[in-house]
Amino acid sequence: MELFLIVLLLLVLIGLSMILNRFVPFIPVPLFQVALGMLAAVIPWGIHIPLSPELFFVLFVAPLLFNDGKRIPREELWNLRAPILLLSLGLVFATVFVGGYVIHWLLPAIPLSAAFALAAILSPTDAVAVGALSGKIRMPKKITHLLEGEALMNDASGLVAFKFAVAATVSGLFSFPEATASFFLISIGGLLVGCLLSFLIIRLRVFIRQLGMEDTTIHMLIQILTPFLIYLVAEEFGVSGILAAVTGGIIHAIERDRSESNLMELKIVSVSTWTMILFILNGLVFLILGLQIPNVAEVVIKDLTISNVQMLVYIILISITLIALRFVWVYGFWRAESSFSKKEHIGKPQLRPALLIAISGVRGTITLAGAFSIPLFLQDGTPFPERNVIIFLAAGVILISLVTASVLLPLLSDKPDKGKERDKQRLEQDAKIQLLEASILMVKEEMNEENQDAALSLISDYNKHIQQIRSDGLVSEIHFRKIEREIRLFALSAERREVKRLVDEGSLNQVDAFTLTQLLNRSEMLVTRRLQYMLRLALFMLKRLAWKVFIGGRKMSRPLPVEQFEVLKAAKLLTSKAAITAIKNHINPENKNAAQEVISNYRQSMQKLNSIFKPAPSYEEFKKHKKELQYKAIQLNRNSIQSLFQNGEINRGLANQLRQFVSFLEVSILVDEEIG
In b/e form, how buried is each residue of 34-53, taking b as 16+ CB within 10 angstroms? Predict the structure, then answer.
């Protein structure tokens, strides 16, 4: 019961962090979550969760990196392979070497091998933190992709270097050739295991579908278990589970792109499920980080042999060393590549982008989890030298990197140009139109004989939205309504001609023709003299109310006989078809959107007429099909927004505006359900 309450409280804190970020948007969500975790740990009845590094890597790191591998642009990753390898391999080992000597120089009590271990665990950047921070600022797309690719790859190199440094400290032995061979074996082995297991899992899913088991639930269960299985098997073979998880994500992304058109329902459910899982895992990662910091700090603060002020100075100096080394490494190799290579991966070397990359090297929970995995004792049974100090330094550097990136990155990133405010509005309009056009394309792909009317109606609605978005002001809206009015009058003329034809051929008598003509006259008045029609309608409603009150509820007029109603219904269906045909023959590029809206109205009226007196109401089927298509389009829009945001094509502000627009579309569905 206690564990359940702790998990429940952590979930509440995740929600609270999102609310706080809404009110204070310039502070990233991870910082709120770290702060809330620290607060939850220091209150009298606070939460205390011992951090198990093995469980942490399996439960959090494996699925998060698997997802990062699925969503990262593969083409960009390949194009930036040289700078990514320089950062994820070269910079990691440079950090271990330089950082180790700096730490040992600052704190001689920490042996050189242990100092190398601390530097190694400080070398990996956190993909989750990088993603959370990059969404708050305007960073070039190539730099964002470079940071994401580096964060995916440097975990393995940093952890391997950390393991060898710890092993050297514990045993007192170290072999550089053996360490180098082991590194390549562990890394390449992780890549191979990730590829092999991914192919086997994909083949298993294909085999299950071939057996006729298209149940979304079982396929989602396999998807959820996949990253944990890949990581555990890789670790069992003694290779990098992190690289295996990343590789598995990339392979599954390739498979998803090839089969997404055949598994639309599974794709929608998969994205929704993983969005929620990753949202919770990301929040828990930073909350757990915050929960651990007070416990680590308490041990060091209470140690009278260590000056607290000196420890803070050491943390700041180590953080500055890491940033400076990262800047020198990035800018130096950037200039070297520009001088000796004709290909420019991320443009010409500049100080500001290099500083952006240097400060974006945020450390996260992988660093803290690695620090906690340091053994308590050496091989001879003596305590591991300065273990608590090492953990405290790691936690301090994590906080400094988060705060530094949160403060400095917005100052160094591109500032919005005030002269381009209108361009921002145009960008938002174009993005909305892009979402609606994607919805139209999806509806056309899903259209069949059963849902054809619903699909055409929905396409008409989306075209109407597009026309409204493209309207820059009242003039455009008036012009659209003018075209629509002309088309409605043109359609009414076609209906009148059809009534005359039916009378001439004897299919309709004069009495029924007069009734239909009266209906057409009222429709024409609604189009041409709307105010007069509304006044007449209001007078009719008052008259009906008075009749009901004073005459005792008896009806003002007798209902039409069923036979006459069926004749009028058949005639009205024919006139509506004639109107639709006339409109189709009258469509041109200028009136296309307005014409489709009028046709959609005619089709809906015909659906309602056909549904009267039928045991299986076809209008209900129409609404059902339309609602299914609408929800598929809504989910497609949400997936597109998330993809655009993660790929750096839109910023967080525009993403939120687009999500609000999609929410408006979803609310309109619910309103239609209530009215219908």
Answer: bbbbbebbbeeeebebebeb
